[in-house]
Amino acid sequence: MSRWSVGVQAGPVIYHLAEQSHWERARRDGIYARSTRGLSLGEEGFIHASSAQQWPVVRRLFYGDVTEPLVLLHIDESRLGSPVVHEVGNPETGETFPHIYGPVDVDAVVDTTVLRPPHA
User: C-alpha dihedral over 115, 67, 32, 28, to 10 degrees?
Assistant: First the structure.
């Protein structure tokens, strides 16, 4: 795993799995606006995120067939300009997930971890 870090974390951290090309584009543009695999923020309406306990399960269930590395974004909620709403993501269990209702400024990403396949 490789890491990219911008400094000390100040607030609660949530996580987002990003494709490398999308994260590289965000670093150039200053904002990240992908919701999840195959969907933009505009298409989904929010960016999917997870807790520290949830992201490994999300990786396995939704990215298990991906053969490229993924980038785990460590997002400091206190640095976000977009609101975060914890909403039920699985109606069967009632488990809630953080949803970011707007783009993520790259300055809110306080660390990254490159995750090499396999993701399952």
Answer: 90
The secondary structure element, H or E, covering residue 88 is strand 84-90
pLDDT, tens digit, for every residue of 29-41?
999 999 999 999 9
| Contact assessment for residue 89 and residue 95, using Cβ atoms and an 8 Å cutoff | yes
Cross-sheet strand order for the sheet of 70-76: 3-5, 109-115, 70-76, 13-19
Give residue-wise pLDDT tens across range 87-106: 998 889 899 999 999 999 99
Q: Residue 59: give its domain's CATH number.
A: 3.20.170.20
| CA separation for the pair 71, 73 (Å, rounded) | 6
pTM (predicted TM-score): 0.89
Query: Does 9 reside within a domain?
Result: yes
Token pair in block for residue 52: 């520290």
